Amino acid sequence: MALSTQRASAFHPSADQSAPPQWNYDVFLSFRGVDTRNNFVSHLFHELQHRGIKTFKDDPKLERGTTISSELFKAIQESRLAIVVLSPNYASSSWCLDELTKILQCMKSNGTLLPVFYNVDPSDVRKQSGSFADAFAEHEKRFREDIDKVKRWRDALTEVANLAGIDSKNQCERKLIEKIVEWVWRKVHRTFKLLDTTELVGIKFTREQMNLLVAPTDDVRFVGIWGMGGIGKTTIAALVHDSICMQFEVSCFLGNVREVSQRGNLVDLQRKLLSPILKEQITDVRDEQSGTYFIKSCLCNKKVLLILDDVNESSQLEKFAKEKDWFGKGSIIIITTRDERLVKKHDMEISYKVEVLGDDEALELFSLNAFKKFEPEEGFLELSKCFVNYAGGLPLALKILGCSMYKRDRDEWKNELDKLRKIPETEIFDLLKISFDRLDEMNKNIFLDVAFFHKGKGKNEVIGILDSCDRYGGINALVEKSLLTIDISYNVNIVGMHDLIQEMAFEIIRQESPEEPGGRSRLCHRNDIIHVMINNTATNKIQGIALSMTELEKADWNCEAFSKMINLKFLEVDNVIISPMSIPKILPNSLRIMKWNRYSSKFLPSNFQPTKLVSLEMQDSKLVGLWDDKIDLPNLKYMDLSGSQNLETTPNFTGIPKLEVLNLERCENLVEIHPSIAFLKWLTDLILNRCKSVKGLPREVEMDSLVHFEVEDCSKLKKIPEFSRQMEKLSILNLRGTPIEKLPSSIGRLVGLTLLDVSNCENLWGLSSEICNLKSLQELTVNGCSYSDKRPENSWGYLKIGMPNKSKRNKSRFWWGLQRKAFVLGSLYGLWSLKYLNVSDCGLCEGDIPVDIDCLSSLEILDLSRNNFVSLPASIGCLTKLWSFSVRGCQRLQQLPHFRFGLVDNEGFSSIYMHTDDCTSLKTLPNLSIKGGRGFVSLSCVNCSGLVENDGYDDSIILGMLWTALDWGLLQVRPSPIPTTSAFQIVTPGSRIPEWFNNQTVGDSLIVELPPCTTSIWIAFCAVFEEGAPVDHPNPPHDLSTYFRIECRPGEGRPVHSFGINKGHLVSPHLWVSCVYHFVVDKECSQMKISFHKFSEDGINRIYWSGIKKCGFRLVHKQDGKKLNQIMMMNHSINISTKATSPHNSHNSVDASGSSHQKSLCRKSYALSKWFLTKLVKIFSLFLTTAVFIKSFNNSEQWGCIGLLIWRVTTLISYLGLAPSYFSLLLKSLIKTVILKRAAKFLQPLLKTPPPQTSAHEYLKG
User: Fold this and answer.
1) Does 1258 participate in catalysis according to the annotation?
2) pLDDT in tens, 138-175
3) Are 15-189 and 441-510 equal in CATH topology?
4) Backbone angles phi, psi at 136, to 5 degrees
5) How many CA atoms lie within 13 A of 802 on its CB side?
6) Are 480 and 11 in contact (CB under 8 A)?
7) Any idea where the TIR domain is (predicted)?
8) Cβ-defined contacts of 717-721 (< 8 Å, 24+)
9) Of 438, 714, 725, 1254, which one has the greatest count of Cβ atoms within 10 A?
10) 441-510 in CATH: which number?
11) Model-level pTM?
12) Which member of 63, 71, 78, 99 is catalytic?
C-alpha cells in the first residue's frame, strides 16, 4: 500500500495561525553562572551539542544590565524547550529570576520546561527557604519600592518547583547529564517530523511492512523503495525516518538526489549529512571526492540512518554509500528510486515496490484534500467516488484533483466530472492536466515558463524574469494549487515542481505541434532545438528557447530561423559554440531576456534593436563590441559581459538609463568605457575586475544608487573617479591590485562605505586624511602597499602636512617615511566602526603605526605582518575588542606592547589569538596574564629564535601561560569560543619539556595512570616536534597539501586539540603546549593512552609524518594552580611581560621581614620616582625646544611642526616603554590639550630671544 500526506495549512489561510512556531533553538539553558557555568552546565551543553540538539546558552557578547536583555527574551521565545538549573545561588541573581519569569510565561504556551535541582532541595525552592530565603531577604531590601516584582519571583520559583523535574541528589554527574539529554532528545525528536501522521492514509499496513524491513540487527542493511513517480515513495521513506530515527546516532534525509546531481551540487548534500559531525570543519568538504572520504571515515563507527530520495544513477549512490563498511553496526541505508534496475544492481537485501492506493485509502486521501477531513461531505460521496476512480489510486493525482475541487458546489463538480469522463483512466497526464485547465491564461503561461525554463531558480529571480516578460503574479497561486513548490536552500526560496507535473507541462506543449517542434511555443529539449535550428522550421509561435549543455558542444545552425521567431521573449543558450558560417545575422527584437554565453560573433547584428530587453548576459563571448552606434534600450537593467576577452569598447550608456548591474569582469582587452557611464542614476553594481587594459574612468561619477564598485587588478588604471556628492549607498569599494597613486580626494563623501580594499596597490603611498570621515567603514585592507621606486618626488603633498619648501622636504627624510618611500598609514582617527585592519607587507618602519590607533574602538582583527618596525606603540594594547593580532614575519620586531585582552564579557572572560611566527628578533612577549585568570590565549611563535636565547626562558613562558589558565580556579572554568575546550595553547621554539609535566617520554605516545572513579579531568600536554618526513610514503603524492596538522588524541577517541603549520617552515625543534578543560573519561578506566599524530592530506588520503620527538602530560588538580603561582613568584626574575630592569615589576617582590619590606618599598618608590621624573624631564625639554621654533614659522607651518612634535614625542614614549594605561592617558591629554591648543600662547612670554635661522629638522638633528 502507498500513502500520502496533506497539511491543511496548504489550502486555507486560517491554518497558518495554528501552525507551530518556527523554532530557532531546541533548548534554552537557564542557570547561575557562578554555580554551574564552568562545570555542570558546560558538560551538559557539550553533550546536547554533540547530539545535534541546538542549544542556547547565554553569549558573553550579550551585555547584561539590571534587566533581561531583548536578545535573551527573543531566544526564550524561539526555543522549543527550556532547562532551568536551580542551584544554591540561583535566587541571588535578579537576572536569573527575571529570566525564569519569562521562561514560565513563554513555555506555558510554546513548549516544555524541565527543572533540574542541582545541589538544592526542591522544598527550599518551593518555599524559598535555606539559601533562597537569604537571597529573597536581600531582594526585599533592594526592591522595597517594587515589592510586586519580588512576589512574581516567589510565585515563579514555587511554580517551577511544583513541576516534575530531575534531582541531582544521589546521582553522579555523568548519569544526571545522560538522563537530561535523553529527555530532551525524545522531546525534540517527537516534534522533528517530516510528516504529519495525523493526516496520513494507508498508514497501518505500510508501517507494518516497513517495520519488518527495518527490524533491529547489527548488520548494515541497504533498503530499496521503488515505484512510479508520484506513487508515494518519498512519503514512505519520510515515515520510516520519523518512526525509527531516535534509534540512531546520526539520521539524515537527503531529498531530490537526482535533481541536485544534475545541477552538480551533490557536495551540498554531503555537507548536510556530515555537518552534525564535522561542525565548523564542514568547510573541509570542498568537493565530492573529499565529501566521500569524510563520509566513510567519519561514519564508519556510528549507527546511521541515511535516506537517499529519488536516486536514478549508481554514481549518485556511490558518493554516499558505496560499501557497507562505510557505516557502523546496525546502520540502515534507504534509497527511493523509479528504476527497479538500480535496486537489483546493488544487491539490496530488502526491496519494496510501492503500489497504488486501494479504494478506501484513495477516497480518504481525496477527501482530505477536497474537504479537509477523511470522509466526503453529505451529498458528495458518489461524486467523490467518481473522481477517485478516474485517479486510478495515484496519490499525486488524488491530491491535485481534490485540491481543484475544494470549496466548489455540486454543479461545478458535475461539470468537472463530465470533462474527466472524456479522458481515459490510464492517462495520468490527463488527470494532472485538469488542475492546469482551471488556470487563467496568465497563470497558465507562468506555469509553463517555470516548467520549461525556471525550475530550480530562486523565487525572486523567477519573479523578476516573469515580470520582464509581462507575466505578473501567479507564483503563490500555483503553489496553492500544488503545481509548484517553494523549497528553502541556503536561506533562498527555490521554485520547484514534481517531476510528473513538469512532464505534464512538456506534454501540453508537445501537443501544440506533435510532429514539428517549430510549431510549439516553448523549447527546452536538445533534440527539438537542434531540429528547428538546423532545418529552419521555426515559426512565430515560439516564445522561449532554453538550451544548456553540460559540456561544450559545437553546432552548425541555420540561424535564419531566428528571423521567423518574431514573438521570442526568452533566449538562453549555454555551452554551444556556433560555427563562423552560422553566425546569426538577425536576432528577434521582441527579446526580453537574452542569455547567450560563448557567443561566437564579434558584434551583435546591426539590425538588432531590442527595445524591451531587460537582461543581456553574454559571458565568455567573442564580442569585440555590442553596437557601433548609440542604441536605445530603455528597459535594460542587467548587462553581464564578463569573460569576453576580445571586448574593446562598451556601448553608449545614454540610451540605457535604467541599467542596474554592469559586469565587465575579465574583459582583458577592454580599453575604453564610455564616459556616459558616470550618469547612470540606477546603477547598483559596477564590476570591472581584471580589466587589464582599461586606462581611465570618468573624472567624476554621479551614481546615486551605486552599492558595489570593483576594479580589482585593473593594472593600467591609475586614477579613480571623484565622487561629486555624498554617496550613502556605496558599501564596497575594491581597488585591489591597481596602480593608483592616491585615493580620490572626495573619498570622505562615501559615508556608507563598509569595505575598502586597496591591497597590492604598489604605487599608493598613503591614505588620504579624508578616510577619517568614513564612519561606517568596517573592513580596511591595505596589505602589499609597499616600496615603489616610481614614487614621485612631491608625494609628500598628498598628506597636506606643511613644510616651507621643496628643498626642506628633501632634507626631512624622517618625515612620515615619505622620502624613504615607504607606505604612509597616517591617522585613523574617526574610524569608530572599523573591525578589520590589514596593513601587512607595507614596508612600515619604526613610528609608522599611528599612536592614536587606540581610537579604533571596534577593531577586532589587526594584521601587521611582514613589516620593518622594531617596536609597536603601546596604544595597540588599548584595543579592548581585539581578538586576533598578527605580526608574522616582522623580523626586526623586538618587543610587543602590553595587551588588554579583548572581547571581555561581564564575567571577565576574554580571548585573543596572537601570531608572531618568524619574528626572529623578538626578545620578549607581552604580559599574557588575564585579569581574574579567565580567558583563552593562543600564541604561535614559530621560528621566534630570539625567545630562547636565554637559558630557561622557554620554561618561564610555559609556566606563565599555565598559571594564567589555572590561577582563577578549576571550579570556575568555561569553554573557549573555539570548537575545543582549551584554556590556552602555545607553539614556541624549544626542545626541552618543562619538569612540571610529570609524565614524559621519548616518542609520540605515553600511558597515563588515572585516579580511581575519575569522570572528568583537566589535562595539560605538550610535544616536541620537528619537520620530519612522510611515514611509509617514500614518494608522497604531488598534490599533497603543503600544510600539516598535529593533534593530541586520548585513547581511541576524537582529538581534543590540534593546530596546523606549513611544511618546510620549521628551522629548529618546537614545543607545543596546551591545556584542556574537563575532559570526560570512563570512570571504569584506570589508564589512558595519549598519542600525538602529525599528518597532511591530499583531499582523501591522510599521510602521517614523523617528527614527534618527545611528549609530556599532566593531570591537573586544584592545588596545581597554587603551586604554579609559587613557582612564578620564586622565578619572578624571569618575567615574560617586561624587562628585568623595568620599574613595573618592582612592586611584585615580597620580603619576608617587616623592616626589610619597608626598606624595599622605600627603595622602589625612590627608584620609580627618579625614573619617572627623568623621562618626564626629557619629554618636556623636547616640548620646549620645539616650541621655540614654532614661533619662527608662519601659521600654516606651525601645525606641520606641531604634527612633527606629536609624532616625535609619541615615538619617544613608545621607545622608552612608557606603556601603563595611567601614563598613556596622561600623555594623551598633555599632547592634545596643552600642546595643540595652548602651547604657543602659554610659551610666548618665555620666548624673548629670536630663534636661529635654520630649519626645524637641522636644529633637532643637532
Assistant:
1) no
2) 998 888 888 888 999 999 999 998 888 888 887 888 88
3) no
4) -75, -25
5) 14
6) yes
7) 23-192
8) 717/691, 718/763, 720/744, 721/678, 721/697
9) 714
10) 1.10.10.10
11) 0.62
12) 99
